[in-house]
Amino acid sequence: MAENGVTPDMVAQQLNLDTRDIDYGLRSCVSAVNALINRWVDPDIRNDPATIHGGTMLAARLYRRRNSPAGVESFGELGPVYVSRNDPDLAMTLGLGNYRKIVVA
């Protein structure tokens, strides 16, 4: 498990990329995701396997979005296929939005 969160190697593996294909874009996505996790997630669970997995999925998704800047993933038989704005699997894994733990102060 990563001591410092998500790593570029983890994201490359998630995307089935050779580690030689890790570029500045992938590294910047990983850096941005780690910064978000540090803001979003309680320090106690930042290196939890579920948090690391969710962060890896998020970084992979952001990296894939570089090929669809207008939100169009591909063109199919029925027209364009758009990238979803929300990913409930990521929200659940990272404990965001409706999946955030309720805290009573």
Tell me the strand order in the biggest sheet: 1-2
Termini distance? 32 Å
| Tally of distinct domains | 1
Global geometry: flat
Q: What percent of residues adopt helix (DSSP H or I)?
A: 40-55%
Residue share in β-strands:
5-15%
Mean pLDDT: 81
- Counted by DSSP, the helix tally is 4
Order of SSEs, N→C? Answer: HHHEEH
Structural class: mainly alpha
* Count of distinct strands: 2
Describe the largest sheet. Answer: 2 strands, antiparallel
How large is the radius of gyration? 15 Å
State the low-pLDDT regions, or none: none
Essential attributes:
9% strand, 2 strands, two-stranded antiparallel ribbon, mainly alpha, 105 residues
Explain how this protein is built.
There is one protein chain. The protein has 105 residues and is mainly alpha-helical. It has one domain (8-99). Helices cover 45% and strands 9% of the residues. It is built from 4 helices and 2 strands; from the N terminus they run αααββα. The protein has helices at 8-14, 24-40, 49-64, 88-94; strands at 72-76, 79-82. Strands 1-2 form a two-stranded antiparallel sheet. Strand 1 (72-76) and strand 2 form a beta hairpin. Helix 1 (8-14) crosses helix 3 (49-64) and helix 2 packs across helix 3. It is flat, with a radius of gyration of 15 Å.
